[in-house]
# Entry
Amino acid sequence: MATDKLALEERRRRRLRYSLKIKSHGRPRLSVFRSGRHIYAQVIDDAQGRTLAAASTLEKDLREQLRTGADKAAAAVVGKRVAERALAAGVTKVVFDRGPYLYHGRVKALADAAREGGLSF
# Structure
């Protein structure tokens, strides 16, 4: 059962990445990884194979916020931080790579905060 679930997750991830690759037109990719407890976001330039900006809930000041159980609020802070760091690196337009995750909850909160922070996708 667990291997079937992982295989389906990998198929969803590959299917989404393929469509993003076709539609991206050379834009960097805002990639989201969500674990049971934390959320991570990176702006990746696939042409050069470099990470341009990154943020996660593992940063020291965000760990305190997670202890209170504010998962969506912490994801929103991560979205704003990755947007600030991307703008500092000179990136304003990205494509959103949600991975195998549905666009709701923490993933949606991160995306909305990144838009508010100045990224367009």
